[in-house]
């Protein structure tokens, strides 16, 4: 058992969630109590978009003659649009029903081009429908019986022909709706359920429809790339287990987010396939979220919690594997009820860990609370039903942002600790080597530092870089075609060339710079407080000096050239890695004709000369 104080502290959290639910329900009740009147159609309100939400005439049953604009529908009942049918539907009529709405068109619009551009935007209708204007069929979504093809997520814009407007200015819209299978109607209701129902100009409605869907697409794409990036980080370092679960969760949310937008219809997938993807993603989310939170908090997952997770995984597999839509209707409510314990458990554990001083729990707690409130709102939409926008995408976004901040804090802490550890290990290594370096720090031929001496100086410069943040560069220099001096004039000549070259390099560097013989005919330079561009300038001057100074030997004047490779030290890397990059640059300089300065950078190699 946990301390009593922690249990008492959970009650304010539950009270907050309950208050949000009451507020949402109150807003819904107020929205239901305000009747909406449909004004007459004019050029002005068409430009602004004329809302068709409100009371429509409604009659259960099916008769294509009910599309006739001359039909008298005053005796029909009224039904608000959007609003679901009764949960039992109208089984005696095969779950078929008609909506009718009569509008008066301003006489000033008659015979004008503006009337030719009029269109209507239809929201979401469970489960399929046909739309008539002036008795003419102008469009449909899904297929009515006997074909029975559901498509209850699609929002469409249909052009209204000018001929649909009667001579007396009346425009009658008739909506023929099939509620769907009995299991669907009993579980979710039917009819015009949500979305915007607007009369306006065709071009404006299309633009508004696209713009309304852009934020959802952008959010889904960004979430997907964030997820892939964290999966990549895990692939590079398998110890970052939390990054794996965050990446998996982000990709899961991104897929679900796309399935909530109209962009999904840009694919060639069938509606059933899209629904399988949507339900599979959302059913799997609790299992991944629990794994993510427990991994973030470094808490062990007990057997009962693991079994709870596997229940969601099994539900996701079943809803994808079982053919048809019926499994969606029958399992959604049970899945929502199954989620309720996690909506209490996760905030409670996060709150407990926050009280214990876990900074990461504090960050994630806020995002989790927002998600719980939005999830409860969406559950009420399905269970009450509630006329309210679905807020799940905002809840997912809150979870992602909070966990991204938490992971960023953890990564920063790990990186800082790694930098500190590198600096400490470097200091220990330098101290151990200093005793040996005192014995042999100088190359006996050139009088320069040898490899050990240079390494000690470079390690000291690395420590200064960590303290000051100022850059430094390493330059590898190699005498071109050195073997010909030994072969043609003997090793005495080769030694003389090395000593003369060492003197030239030493004389033209600053006091703070260091030059050493790296091995054979190869020299290495350390340039403190120097960036890549500055190092390139120094190396180019040295290259010109070596090229212009002939070496006298046995009454002969020998010409010498050198090739230089430059690498700027990157904070956090080893000295060997930096030198390796400089060596790669030097190698490419040799391949490109020698007597050159090459710069190694992140994207490749840059040729200075």
UniProtKB/TrEMBL annotation:
Sequence ranges assigned to domain GGDEF in this UniProt record: 470-602
Record-linked PROSITE patterns: GGDEF
Keywords: Membrane, Transmembrane, Transmembrane helix
InterPro entries with a match to the protein in the record: 7TMR_DISM_rcpt_extracell_dom1, Diguanylate_Cyclase, Galactose-bd-like_sf, GGDEF_dom, Nucleotide_cyclase, Rev_trsase/Diguanyl_cyclase
NCBIfam families in UniProt: GGDEF (TIGR00254)
EC number(s) reported in the record: 2.7.7.65
Domain of life: Bacteria
Cofactor: Mg(2+)
First-tier enzyme category under EC: transferase
Transmembrane segments: 214-235, 242-259, 279-297, 304-322, 334-351, 363-384, 390-408
PANTHER family: DIGUANYLATE CYCLASE DGCM-RELATED (PTHR45138:SF9), REGULATORY COMPONENTS OF SENSORY TRANSDUCTION SYSTEM (PTHR45138)
Catalytic activity: 2 GTP = 3',3'-c-di-GMP + 2 diphosphate
Gene3D superfamilies, sorted: 3.30.70.270, Galactose-binding domain-like
Protein name: diguanylate cyclase
SMART domains reported for this sequence: GGDEF
Organism of derivation: Pseudohalioglobus sediminis
Pfam family, one: 7TMR-DISM_7TM
Entry keyword annotation includes Transmembrane: yes
């Amino acid at each position: 058992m946990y301390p009593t104080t922690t249990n008492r502290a959970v009650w304010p959290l539950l009270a907050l969630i309950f208050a949000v639910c009451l507020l949402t329900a109150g807003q819904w009740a107020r929205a239901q109590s305000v009747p909406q009147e449909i004004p007459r159609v004019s050029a002005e309100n068409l430009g602004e978009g004329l809302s068709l939400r409100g009371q429509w005439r409604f009659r259960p049953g099916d008769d294509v003659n009910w599309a006739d604009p001359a039909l008298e529908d005053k005796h029909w009942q009224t039904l608000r649009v959007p609003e679901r049918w009764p949960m039992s539907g109208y089984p005696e009529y095969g779950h078929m029903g008609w909506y009718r709405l009569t509008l008066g068109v301003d006489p000033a619009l008659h015979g004008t081009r503006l009337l030719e551009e009029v269109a209507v935007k239809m929201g979401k209708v469970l489960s399929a429908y046909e739309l008539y204007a002036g008795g003419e069929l102008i469009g449909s979504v899904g297929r009515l019986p006997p074909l029975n093809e559901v498509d209850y997520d699609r929002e469409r814009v249909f052009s209204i022909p000018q001929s649909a407007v009667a001579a007396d200015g009346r425009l009658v819209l008739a909506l023929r709706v099939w509620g769907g299978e009995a299991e669907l109607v009993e579980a979710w209701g039917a009819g015009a359920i949500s979305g915007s129902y607007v009369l306006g100009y065709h071009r404006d409605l299309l633009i508004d429809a696209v713009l309304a869907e852009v934020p959802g697409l952008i959010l889904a794409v960004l979430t997907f790339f964030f997820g892939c990036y964290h999966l990549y980080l895990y692939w590079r370092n398998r110890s970052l287990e939390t990054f794996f679960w965050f990446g998996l969760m982000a990709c899961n949310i991104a897929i679900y987010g796309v399935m909530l937008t109209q962009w999904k219809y840009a694919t060639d997938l069938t509606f059933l396939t899209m629904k399988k993807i949507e339900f599979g993603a959302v059913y799997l989310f609790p299992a991944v979220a629990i794994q993510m939170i427990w991994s973030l908090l470094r808490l062990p997952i007990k057997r009962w919690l693991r079994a709870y997770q596997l229940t969601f995984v099994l539900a996701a597999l079943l809803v994808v594997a079982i053919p048809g839509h019926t499994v969606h209707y029958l399992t959604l409510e049970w899945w929502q009820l199954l989620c309720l314990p996690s909506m209490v458990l996760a905030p409670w554990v996060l709150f407990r860990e926050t009280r214990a001083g876990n900074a990461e729990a504090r960050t994630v707690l806020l995002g989790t609370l927002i998600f719980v409130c939005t999830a409860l709102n969406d559950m009420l939409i399905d269970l009450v039903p509630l006329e309210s926008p679905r807020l799940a995408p905002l809840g997912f976004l809150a979870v992602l942002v909070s966990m991204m901040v938490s992971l960023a804090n953890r990564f920063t802490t790990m990186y800082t600790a790694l930098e500190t550890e590198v600096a400490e290990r470097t200091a220990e290594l330098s101290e151990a080597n200093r005793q040996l370096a005192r014995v042999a720090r100088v190359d006996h031929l050139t009088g320069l530092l040898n490899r050990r001496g240079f390494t000690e100086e470079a390690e000291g410069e690395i420590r200064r870089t960590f303290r000051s943040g100022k850059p430094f560069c390493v330059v590898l220099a190699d005498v071109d075609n050195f073997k010909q001096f030994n072969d043609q004039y003997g090793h005495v000549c080769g030694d003389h060339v090395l000593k003369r070259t060492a003197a030239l390099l030493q004389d033209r560097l600053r006091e703070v710079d260091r030059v050493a013989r790296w091995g054979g005919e190869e020299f290495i330079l350390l340039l403190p407080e120097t960036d890549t561009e500055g190092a390139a300038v120094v190396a180019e001057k040295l290259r010109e000096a070596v090229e212009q100074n002939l070496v006298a030997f046995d009454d002969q004047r020998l010409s010498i050239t050198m090739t230089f490779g430059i690498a700027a030290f990157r904070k956090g890397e080893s000295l060997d890695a930096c030198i390796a990059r400089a060596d790669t640059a030097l190698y490419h300089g040799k391949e490109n004709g020698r007597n050159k300065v090459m710069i190694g950078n992140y994207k490749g190699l840059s040729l200075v000369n």
